[in-house]
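Hey everyone, long-time lurker, first post.

I ran two proteins through the pipeline my lab uses and got sequence/structure pairs for each. Pasting them in order. The first:
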Amino acid sequence: MTKAIVLLSGGLDSATTLAIARTQDFEPYALSFRYGQRHAVELDAARDIAAQIGVAAHHIVDIDLRAFGGSALTADIPVPTEPSGGIPVTYVPARNTIFLSFALAWCEVLDASDMFIGVNAVDYSGYPDCRPEFIRAFEALAGLATKAGVEGAVKFKVHAPLIAMSKAAIIRRGLALGVDYSLTRSCYAPDSAGRACGVCDSCRIRRKGFAEVGMQDPAPYRSEG
């Protein structure tokens, strides 16, 4: 099987992406990050998902993005409960660039050329690092910034299988692949018990997707409102 690095946050999209990588005959190496996020409960979910779907290895890397802040996820800024115009305050500066850079480094060590990321440009929060243009630009960067790329031994590929799918379509795909969505966590502001708030942007998009599929989100919420 072909080795691939799969970014695994513990959320719905990354779990589905991991399942897709496996069905495409890749041997997945899961990569998660403890980056100072307020919703670190997602890392427990990532461990459970990696065990359920199956991976060759799973690394959780520590990065302190709270040192810079600038986001409601990495600073003492309230997580908004209403939609806002433009790029929301839950955007973490350069997060996917940073994560893919770590994935690229692991690729070089494993002699791998494939990376998977669960970004989506349809039902998402408007983050600039979730767009097709970003994916193409990072692939170009990978070819220029690595020994393997410069020597021509590898042509790096960033797979973004969910990028043009609605949240409902993603859920349907994952269900067909046997993803247990009760293990996943997507909320930006969960309580101490790991229950989702139900009102942040991530929760609203997720619950809308399950509603469109005709089923209740199996993740725990503080209330059913």
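...and the second, right after it:
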Amino acid sequence: MTFTAYYVTPGGDLKRNLIEAGMSAAFESRQGLLWVDVSGATEADAPFLERNFHFHHLAIEDSVASRIHPPKIDDLGSYLFLIVHGINPVSVAEMPETAELALFLGSHFVVSVHRTPLHCIEQVKRIVENDGTVMKHGADFLAHALIDVLIDNILPTIDTMTDMSEAVEEETIRNPQQSVLESVLKLKRSTLKIHRVIAPQREILNRLSRGEFSIIKEEARIYYRDVYDHLIRIEDFIQYIRDSADNALDTYMSSVANRQNEVMKVLSMLAAIFMPLTLIAGIYGMNFEHMPELTWSWGYFAVLGLMAVVVILAIIWFWTRKWISFRRR
């Protein structure tokens, strides 16, 4: 575990990289604004949070546990406990991975806890290091900045998935192969995975923006409403991608069915052509003694000619029925 602590004094001065004693003193003073970011948290770091902040042990357990928790918000009296999710940047070929961020939000402090490095945390740290403005507006504005950047970082992945869905749709029409089916199914699983964490967060941001919690000041609620609108847009994009994947899957299944029908059509025509030939060969393959054609000098060639006539007539009949075509595609 590593932690970074920033403290804005009541006079507006920014103090950086506080040690544990200074961080604890700033928290106990209940003045100014303290932001502590705990990165790489594990279950062994629970005593650190309990010792310095006296948070509820259930909230601490959820923030440091290795298992993934669904997004949620708990009102614990003097502070709020939130779990929100973003997406870790991964390669295009991989499934998107959700990134969990736990926030303890009080009137004079914000404590962020996460197991993996998060781009949103580093981005807000850079803003704080520059001028500290985001912290001088209060804890609710700082929490908004963290959540806003976390949600905005989902959009590049959504854009990549949108491009993939369009490419998969085109490939499904042009060349419906097994690899295309795997891409479609992977896309559907990705959208489902993102939807599972986005849908609950929409309700969380809605509650934060409508004045349900006194910690969120009235002037900050409009900013949470803006994040809520971003989640609505992301949901719309996910629905579009899901619909595209469903269309691509339907197209793939239709293409496979059409190809199977073409194969069965060809096999049926071959069977229809060779069944009369089999009948003729079967008749003249019998071993009866009194078969007049067996004594003909040209009997063998006559039978072959009869077979050729049958084949030609069958092909002409199929052509008149438009079952086969001699035109080049």
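Reply from user beta_strand_b:
Welcome! Quick read of the second one: The first strand starts at residue 2 and ends at 8. The radius of gyration is 35 Å.
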